[in-house]
Amino acid sequence: MAIRIRAVDGLRVALCAAETDAIAGDVYLDDADHHALAAKFRWDWKDEKLVDWPDYPAEWAAMETQKLRDAKTELEAWLARQPEQGGGNG
């Protein structure tokens, strides 16, 4: 999933690229970049037997303020337009 890294009121957050539009200052990470970061994150925590993941209320609230559309809805609409999926354009 492609993401955008953005500062929202001084708080750095990661946003779904499908749900947001680019603005000046965003750092765009494509699927491969995001995958690489996930692999690194997992590597960093691979020896932890039990990780008590905290919630991130400030970050999650800031992320919600940036959402313009729903990624699932966007994907379903895109799939419907693909000929091999039985949609239009073909």
Task: Characterize the structure shown.
With 90 residues, the protein is α+β, with helices and mostly antiparallel strands. Helices cover 39% and strands 17% of the residues. It has 3 helices and 3 strands.
Core attributes:
single chain; 90 residues; alpha+beta; 3-stranded antiparallel beta sheet; 3 helices
Quick overview of this protein structure:
The protein is built from three helices and three strands; from the N terminus they run βββααα. With 90 residues, the chain is of the alpha+beta class. The chain has a three-stranded antiparallel β-sheet.
The value of Rg in angstroms is 16 Å
Question: What composes the largest sheet?
Answer: 3 strands, antiparallel
State the helical fraction.
Answer: 25-40%
Query: Total strand count, please?
Result: 3
Low-pLDDT stretches are none
Give the H and E element order. Answer: EEEHHH
Note the gap between the termini: 26 Å
- Enumerate how many helices there are, as a single number: 3
On the 0-100 scale, what is the average pLDDT? 88
**Which outline best applies?**
globular
Structural class: alpha+beta
Q: What is the spatial order of strands in the main beta sheet?
A: 2-1-3
What is the percentage of strand-forming residues?
Answer: 15-25%
What layout of secondary structure does this protein have?
Elements (H helix, E strand, L loop, with lengths): L2 E6 L2 E6 L10 E3 L1 H14 L12 H10 L4 H11 L9
Antiparallel strand pairs: 1-2, 1-3
